[in-house]
C-alpha cells in the first residue's frame, strides 16, 4: 500500500518509530494509504533543516531570485494539475468540479500572487529633527522572521496550506508544515514540486501526525520555531497560543466563527437565494467565511425560507467524479 512520508531537508523519510496511521477516502471509507506519524525526532530534524536553510543559499538570495523560484513552484503545480486534483479529491471526497476550479488553481496561484506582491511592498521612512540641527532619517528594513510552523486544515488542504506557505517563503522564511491528518497527500506531494523548482533543501518541510502528544504539539512547542500560523477550531487555537507564550512567539490564528448573512426586503431575490445557497453549502459549508446564519427582513421571510428550502433540496450528493454533484459523498 502507498505510504505518505515526511518531507525533511529535501528528502522523503519515514518515522523512526515505525508508527503509521490510515489515510481514509471519506467518499467510500476505504484506506488509500498509510501515513507516517512524526515523533519528536522527526519534528526536530525538520526544524533544524529549516533553521540551517536560513543560513544557506535561500537566506542569501535576492527578492528577485526567490520570487522567480516561487513562480516555478506555481507552474510546477499547474503542470501536474491532474495529479494534485486526484490526490485532493481522494483525501477530501469533494467533487472534482469544485476542486478543479478552486482548490488546485488557487493552491498554485498563491505562490505567484505573493511572489509578485512582495516585490512591491514598501518600507516606512520618516525624517526627525535633532538637537544639532542636521536632522535624522529613520527607515525600516525588512528581514525574514525565521522558521515558521504551519498547521493547515482539511477543508481546502492545498489552497489554505499554500495561502500560508506562499507569503512565508516570499518573505524569505523557511517552513515546517503539519497538514491535517485527514488530508496529507497534496502537502507531501508538493515536496516533489519544490525540488523540481529549485527550492533549496530545508526551505520547505512536512511532518505528519496529530495534535496532542504528536507532531502538532511537538512543532508548536519547539523553541527554534519563530512563529506559528494555524487555521482550525478555537480549542486548538487556544492550545497553540499557550505553547507560543513560551518565548513570546508570534501567532496567526484563523479560528471558528458564525458568519451572518443579511437579506433586506428590497433585495434581488434570485441573487439573494443564489448567493446564500453558495455561501452556506459550497464545500459542504466548510469554508472559513461560509454563511452559518441568515437574518431576513420579516416582510420577505416566508418567501425567502421557502425558496432557500427548495434550492437546498435540489442540491446533489455524489462521488468526486460526478460532474453534477454539489457535495462530495
Automatic annotation (TrEMBL):
Catalytic residues identified in the record: 254
Sequence ranges assigned to domain Aldehyde dehydrogenase in this UniProt record: 13-328
UniProt superkingdom: Bacteria
This protein's record includes keyword Metal-binding: no
Gene3D superfamilies reported for this sequence: Aldehyde Dehydrogenase, Chain A, domain 1 (3.40.605.10), Aldehyde Dehydrogenase, Chain A, domain 2 (3.40.309.10)
Keyword Oxidoreductase belongs to the record: yes
The entry's keywords: NAD, Oxidoreductase
GO MF term (any one): oxidoreductase activity, acting on the aldehyde or oxo group of donors, NAD or NADP as acceptor
Protein family according to the UniProt entry: Belongs to the aldehyde dehydrogenase family.
Name assigned to this protein: Aminomuconate-semialdehyde/2-hydroxymuconate-6-semialdehyde dehydrogenase
Organism: Pseudomonas linyingensis
Phylogenetic placement of the source organism: Bacteria, Pseudomonadati, Pseudomonadota, Gammaproteobacteria, Pseudomonadales
Amino acid at each position: 500500500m502507498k505510504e505518505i512520508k515526511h518531507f525533511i531537508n529535501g528528502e522523503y523519510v519515514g518515522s523512526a518509530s515505525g508508527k503509521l496511521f490510515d489515510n481514509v477516502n471519506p467518499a467510500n471509507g476505504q484506506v488509500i494509504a498509510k501515513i507516517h506519524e512524526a515523533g519528536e525526532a522527526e519534528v526536530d530534524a525538520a526544524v533544524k533543516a529549516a533553521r540551517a536553510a536560513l543560513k544557506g543559499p535561500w537566506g542569501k538570495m535576492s527578492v528577485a531570485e526567490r520570487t522567480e523560484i516561487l513562480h516555478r513552484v506555481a507552474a510546477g503545480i499547474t503542470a501536474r494539475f491532474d495529479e494534485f486534483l486526484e490526490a485532493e479529491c481522494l483525501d477530501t471526497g469533494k467533487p472534482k468540479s469544485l476542486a478543479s476550479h478552486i482548490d488546485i488553481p488557487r493552491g498554485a496561484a498563491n505562490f505567484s500572487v505573493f511572489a509578485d506582491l512582495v516585490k512591491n511592498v514598501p518600507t516606512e521612512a520618516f525624517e526627525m529633527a535633532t538637537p544639532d540641527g542636521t536632522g535624522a532619517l529613520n527607515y525600516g528594513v525588512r528581514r525574514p522572521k525565521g522558521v515558521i510552523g504551519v498547521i493547515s486544515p482539511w477543508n481546502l488542504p492545498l489552497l489554505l496550506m499554500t495561502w500560508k506557505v506562499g507569503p512565508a517563503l516570499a518573505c524569505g522564511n523557511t517552513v515546517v508544515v503539519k497538514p491535517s491528518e485527514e488530508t496529507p497527500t497534496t502537502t507531501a506531494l508538493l515536496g516533489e514540486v519544490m525540488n523540481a523548482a529549485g527550492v533549496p533543501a530545508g526551505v520547505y518541510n512536512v511532518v505528519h501526525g496529530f495534535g496532542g502528544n504528536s507532531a502538532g504539539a511537538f512543532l508548536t512547542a519547539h523553541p527554534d520555531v519563530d512563529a506559528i500560523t494555524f487555521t482550525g477550531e478555537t480549542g486548538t487555537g487556544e492550545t497553540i497560543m499557550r505553547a507560543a507564550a513560551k518565548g513570546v512567539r508570534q501567532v496567526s490564528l484563523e479560528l471558528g466563527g458564525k458568519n451572518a448573512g443579511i437579506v433586506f426586503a428590497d433585495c434581488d431575490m434570485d441573487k439573494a437565494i443564489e448567493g446564500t445557497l453558495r455561501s452556506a453549502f459550497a464545500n459542504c459549508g466548510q469554508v472559513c467565511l461560509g454563511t452559518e446564519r441568515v437574518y431576513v427582513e420579516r416582510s420577505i421571510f416566508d418567501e425567502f425560507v421557502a425558496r432557500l428550502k427548495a434550492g437546498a433540496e435540489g442540491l446533489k450528493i455524489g462521488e468526486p467524479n460526478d460532474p453534477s454533484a454539489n457535495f462530495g459523498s
